[in-house]
Amino acid sequence: MPSSETIRGQSPQILWVGCADSRCPETTILGLKPGEIFCHRNIANILVNTDINSLSVIQYAVQYLQVKHIIICGHTMCGGIAAALDNKRLGLIDTWLMPLRAIRQENLQLLNSLDEFNQGLKMVELNVRQGVKQLLANPVVLDAMHERGLQVHGLIYDVRSGELRELDIEEDEEVVKSRVVAFKTV
């Protein structure tokens, strides 16, 4: 039964960007209740700057719900990641997986040096890092970080153990400054 607070409206502190995989329910993973997380889920938690759906969710969560944290979370044993590491033709989903295939291409030497299991783990991490990069270049996110301390986090959920691992996404001050110059709008 929903609480009376949840019925009146929502005021989540967290925007969760995660995979649509049914094994990765955000409220369960974080031990929270309905109404405490605003979420966007898609195959392999891909964020690109041309996806109006995810951009709308991000803007609404940041600008109107005033979330304090954005979490982008990838997970082990991800089918989207496995598909991007494979060369089978999948139809429409191939278009969606293009950003993952680009990450694969950019890191091919590293990925080829790993066994199959670790290739998957590394791709999950690289994809989360790319999603963080997309978030940090979003003008709405940049404004909220500057004006009210919005925080962005990159996490990886281990489907087998149920553990969450936070990635170190700290950046050099010069990188932060150049991103603000390039992407902040007024």
Automatic annotation (TrEMBL):
<dbReference type="GO" id="GO:0004089">
    <property type="term" value="F:carbonate dehydratase activity"/>
</dbReference>
<dbReference type="Pfam" id="PF00484">
    <property type="entry name" value="Pro_CA"/>
</dbReference>
<dbReference type="GO" id="GO:0071244">
    <property type="term" value="P:cellular response to carbon dioxide"/>
</dbReference>
<keyword id="KW-0456">Lyase</keyword>
<comment type="function">
    <text>Reversible hydration of carbon dioxide.</text>
</comment>
<protein>
    <recommendedName>
        <fullName>Carbonic anhydrase</fullName>
        <ecNumber>4.2.1.1</ecNumber>
    </recommendedName>
</protein>
<comment type="similarity">
    <text>Belongs to the beta-class carbonic anhydrase family.</text>
</comment>
<dbReference type="GO" id="GO:0034599">
    <property type="term" value="P:cellular response to oxidative stress"/>
</dbReference>
<dbReference type="GO" id="GO:0008270">
    <property type="term" value="F:zinc ion binding"/>
</dbReference>
<dbReference type="InterPro" id="IPR001765">
    <property type="entry name" value="Carbonic_anhydrase"/>
</dbReference>
<feature type="binding site">
    <location>
        <position position="78"/>
    </location>
    <ligand>
        <name>Zn(2+)</name>
    </ligand>
</feature>
<dbReference type="GO" id="GO:0005737">
    <property type="term" value="C:cytoplasm"/>
</dbReference>
<keyword id="KW-0479">Metal-binding</keyword>
<feature type="binding site">
    <location>
        <position position="19"/>
    </location>
    <ligand>
        <name>Zn(2+)</name>
    </ligand>
</feature>
<keyword id="KW-0862">Zinc</keyword>
<dbReference type="InterPro" id="IPR015892">
    <property type="entry name" value="Carbonic_anhydrase_CS"/>
</dbReference>
<feature type="binding site">
    <location>
        <position position="21"/>
    </location>
    <ligand>
        <name>Zn(2+)</name>
    </ligand>
</feature>
<dbReference type="InterPro" id="IPR036874">
    <property type="entry name" value="Carbonic_anhydrase_sf"/>
</dbReference>
<feature type="binding site">
    <location>
        <position position="75"/>
    </location>
    <ligand>
        <name>Zn(2+)</name>
    </ligand>
</feature>
<dbReference type="GO" id="GO:0015976">
    <property type="term" value="P:carbon utilization"/>
</dbReference>
